[in-house]
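Notebook B, p. 112. Complex prediction, attempt 2.
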Amino acid sequence: MRIILLGGGHAHIGVLRLWAARPSCRPRGPILLADPGSEVWYSGMLPGHVAGHYPARALMIDLPRLCDRAAVTRIEAAADAVDPVRRRVRIGGAWHDFDLLSLDIGAHARLDALPGFSDHALAVKPLGTFSEGWARWLAKALPAPRVAVIGAGLGGAEIALAMAHRLGPDARVTLIEGDAQPLPGLGARARAMVVGALERRGIGILTGSAVARVEADALHLADGRIEGADLIVGAAGARPHGWLAVSGLTDARGFVPVGPTLQHPEYPHILAVGDCAEMLASPRPKAGVHAVRQGPDLAHNLAALVAGRPPRPHHPQRDFLKLVSLGERRAIALWRGLALGGAGGSALLWRLKDRIDRGFMARGRC
Ligand SMILES: Cc1cc2nc3c(=O)[nH]c(=O)nc-3n(C[C@H](O)[C@H](O)[C@H](O)COP(=O)(O)OP(=O)(O)OC[C@H]3O[C@@H](n4cnc5c(N)ncnc54)[C@H](O)[C@@H]3O)c2cc1C
């Protein structure tokens, strides 16, 4: 059986690590992984990197080395079409046949439909492109820089806090949210604590109007407000890659639907995990934690399908501990409606987050 893994996302990294550590778990036969990058980025440490606590290399997983150790052939190119009926996928312009295909290509944060965005703004994902853009912009060392972050979800808030810390008190950082209030996905207590942290840092919050247009030095909101900015960052949620819909694999929102065994309901020889997938039986917000947790079940199911055994269901967690870094080495913990750390955060919680994140990265080096 020929297996193709598309994308070095968090779940596929777990699968590769398992096959590297325990070759007996690797299904027999040729396995190919395609990703346009030679390293993949771990998002949990991105805010710490933006804040200046971690160099870029601390967030990078060496994909060629991991593929070598897992006996997986790697193609450094992006896929742009799947033919689910003929069981083939186009990677870097060439078609490759498969018996089993697993998709873990994540999502992006580009606001392609927003006028001016692609010319004047920087999307927070893909992370590598964002890190390079941020480093280039930082090198300009503008006096009193102004940054506007589109999207006041948890990711946008964390990035804004990290930028405000890195840029210092002369900078003006503003979060822009189309909803009536920031952090729309959080409960009242958690929202109040994160908003408190943003206010302590002097981060402005503009809510209640969508962004209508982006220019080189300003954001124009639909209600007429204009926010001047030297750097505009897009952090408004996870958007599906458009080519998947063209391949006929997606739901109306553009995500790949999967059943409990992570298989596509119509094409069971296609599996999907991470942000690009939508778990029909148990939908969850897009988060790296869910992708990581899918890894062991995905590895099990690929091996089972190759061996002709039944795959097992994946049971995602209902909620998970969110550790939100506040720019400086302090963090807030959010879990099941509880919020710990206060608006000033806790150094102990940051050390816990740092330990968890470094532990995740270190597992790849074993
Ligand atoms: C600022 C920020 C902070 C975050 N913090 C957290 C956090 O603390 N905890 C948490 O759980 N989540 C966090 N997230 C969310 C997290 O980043 C995503 O949920 C997670 O990265 C999704 O993992 P994934 O496996 O779906 O894919 P990704 O990790 O996004 O990887 C996808 C891979 O696929 C590759 N790829 C893309 N297109 C193609 C293609 N066409 N062909 C082949 N390969 C392709 C990419 O190069 C990439 O290597 C954060 C997000 C942001 C923006």
